[in-house]
From TrEMBL:
The species this protein was found in: Paraburkholderia polaris
Gene3D superfamilies: Ribonuclease Z/Hydroxyacylglutathione hydrolase-like (3.60.15.10)
Protein name: Ligase-associated DNA damage response exonuclease
Any GO molecular function: exonuclease activity
Source domain of life: Bacteria
Claim: Ligase is one of the keywords in the record: yes
Length: 344
C-alpha cells in the first residue's frame, strides 16, 4: 500500500469546513450552518437545524418538531439504531437525551467509528429517550457546562421546588410565570410539575411545540393558550402556572396576569448573581445539557481514545481530557446560540 493510500485510510472521518462539520468519505455535513447538499441533523434547535439544505436526515422521533420549525424541507428519517449507507460510510442515530428526537450520529468507515454527540444530557427526562453510550474511536462532544461549578441537583428536587413556589403563589392569589426555552425545556417542565396545583397556560410560542410533542406520543397535561383569555380577565390566572419564553420577559404581555411572581429555569442559574441579572423573583437550576460530572461519565463510557470538543467551555474540557491521557482537540463551530442566548 502506498503512503498516499495509508494517509487516506487514516484521514479524519469528520473535519471542520466553513459550511460546518463535514464527513469526507460520506460526503455529508453534520448540523451545518451554511446551505449544503446533504445535512444530518442531530436535533431541531435553531443553532443545529437551519433552513437552506437540499436534503435532511434526522431521527424519526424528532421529525414532528423539525418539520414544525423547518416547514417544507426534504426530510429522510431513521429510527434510533437503524443503519444507513451513505457514500463509503455506514451511519446510525442514537438517543442523546437532550430534547425530543435528539440524536448522536455514529459514523463507521473501514473499521473506524466516530460519534458526533450533538447536545446531550444524562439526567432522566420523561419527554425524550435517555442518552445511550455509543462505543467509538473518536467522540465529538459538546461542553456547554464543562466547568466543575456546574453540577445539577436531581431533577425531582428541582421540580419539587417549582411546585412549592407555584403552590405558595396560588395560595396568595398570585400568578406564577416561569420563563424557559420554548423547545425542550418548556415540555420537560410541563411533563414534570404537579398539574393538580392549578391551571396551566402557555405563551403562543410554546404551544406549537407542545402539539409536536403530543403528536410524537409524549404525555403532557392539559394546557390552555394565554390568548384564549380576554385581556381584562386577570382573575383566571390567580392560581395558574404560565410557561413563557425568555423573550416575553419585560413585555406588555405580562400585564394581563395582574399580580404575578416570575422565575427562570436554566442551568445558568447555578452562577451566583444570575437570578439578579435576569431580574426575576426565583431561579431554578434546570438544564437540558450534561453537567461537569455527566460530561466526564459520557466521554468515558464511549471508550474513545480521541475526543474533539465543539462548543461551550472548550479549553478547560480539552485540558482536562489531556490530563486523563486522551488525545483531545477542538472544532470551531457556530453552536450554542439558539434563542439568541444559547439553549441552557
Amino acid at each position: 500500500m502506498t503512503n498516499a493510500s495509508n494517509q487516506a485510510e487514516l484521514a479524519d472521518l469528520v473535519v471542520a469546513r466553513p459550511e460546518g462539520l463535514y464527513c469526507p468519505p460520506g460526503d455529508f455535513y453534520i448540523d451545518p450552518w451554511q446551505p449544503v447538499e446533504r445535512a444530518v441533523i442531530t436535533h431541531a434547535h435553531s443553532d443545529h437545524a437551519r433552513f437552506g439544505h437540499r436534503h435532511y436526515l434526522a431521527s424519526k422521533a424528532g421529525a414532528n418538531v423539525l418539520l414544525s420549525r423547518l416547514a417544507g424541507i426534504t426530510l429522510q428519517t431513521l429510527a434510533y439504531g437503524e443503519r444507513l449507507d451513505i457514500g463509503g460510510t455506514t451511519v446510525s442515530l442514537h438517543p442523546a437525551g437532550h430534547v425530543l428526537g435528539s440524536a448522536q450520529l455514529r459514523i463507521e468507515h473501514k473499521g473506524r467509528v466516530w460519534v458526533a454527540s450533538g447536545d446531550y444530557k444524562l439526567d432522566p427526562d420523561p419527554t425524550c429517550e435517555a442518552f445511550e453510550p455509543v462505543r467509538c474511536d473518536t467522540f465529538i462532544t459538546e461542553s456547554t457546562f464543562g466547568l466543575p461549578i456546574y453540577r445539577w441537583d436531581a431533577p425531582q428536587t428541582v421540580f419539587d421546588g417549582v411546585d412549592s413556589w407555584w403552590r405558595h403563589n396560588a395560595a396568595e392569589g398570585r400568578a406564577s410565570v416561569l420563563f424557559c426555552y420554548s423547545f425542550g425545556k418548556a415540555q420537560r417542565v410541563l411533563a414534570s410539575v404537579d398539574a393538580g396545583i392549578g391551571p396551566i397556560f402557555c405563551h403562543g410560542a410554546v404551544e406549537p411545540l407542545n402539539r409536536a410533542y403530543r403528536d410524537a406520543g409524549v404525555r403532557l397535561p392539559p394546557v390552555r393558550p394565554v390568548s384564549e383569555i380576554p385581556a381584562k380577565d386577570k382573575a383566571v390566572f390567580r392560581h395558574a402556572l404560565i410557561v413563557a419564553p425568555p423573550s416575553a420577559q419585560g413585555s406588555a404581555w405580562l400585564k394581563r396576569f395582574g399580580d404575578y411572581s416570575d422565575a427562570f429555569a436554566s442551568g445558568w442559574m447555578r452562577l451566583r448573581g444570575a437570578r439578579r441579572r435576569r431580574g426575576v423573583d426565583r431561579g431554578f437550576v434546570l438544564s437540558d445539557h450534561a453537567d461537569w460530572p455527566s460530561l466526564q461519565t459520557a466521554i468515558q463510557a464511549t471508550g474513545a481514545e480521541r475526543v474533539i470538543v465543539t462548543h461551550g467551555s472548550v479549553e478547560p474540557m480539552v485540558r482536562w481530557l489531556r490530563e486523563q491521557g486522551l488525545e483531545a482537540g477542538a472544532f470551531e463551530t457556530q453552536y450554542g446560540d439558539d434563542n439568541a442566548a444559547g439553549d441552557p
